[in-house]
Write a structure and sequence with these properties.
Blueprint lengths: L2 H16 L3 E10 L21 E3 L8 E6 L5 E8 L7 E5 L1 H6 L8 E8 L3
Parallel strand pairs: 1-5, 2-4
Antiparallel strand pairs: 1-6, 2-5, 3-4, 3-6
Length: 120
């Protein structure tokens, strides 16, 4: 193996090692009631139902999460800015705008998967 090929190999190996693994969870998603619009979230940010945000019990604030509705395959990307949901079986609470994008605003709760890059 030439020095140039070896160097290329090391660069690729380093790049692949630096990539964060994707994590997925499955469960139910719900969305915020209108009464929460304008209230402070656990991150200190003011909640707005028209933004693409979400609540998760443990993910760091600012984590970008892809949510897929398992009933229709529709997806939405949201940013975690709050804690919750605190209902058994639910893994994420979405803003109303995010819920509309994946068509759960009429049914209220739906089976979803969430995926995100795990930070080291």
């Amino acid at each position: 193996m030439s020095f140039q090929n070896f160097t290329y190999f090391l660069v690729v190996l380093t790049f692949l090692g630096a990539c964060s693994p994707k994590v997925t969870q499955s469960g139910k998603a719900s969305y915020y009631a209108d009464k929460f619009d304008g209230r402070k979230t656990a991150s200190g940010e003011v909640f707005r139902n028209h933004k693409l945000t979400a609540a998760h019990k443990t993910l760091p604030f600012g984590t970008k999460v892809k949510v897929t509705n398992l009933n229709n395959g529709k997806t939405v990307k949201v940013r975690v800015n709050d804690r919750g949901p605190f209902v058994a079986g639910r893994i994420i609470d979405l803003s109303k705008q995010a819920a509309k994008k994946i068509d759960i605003d009429k049914v209220g709760v739906a089976r979803v998967t969430i995926s995100y890059k795990k930070k080291k």
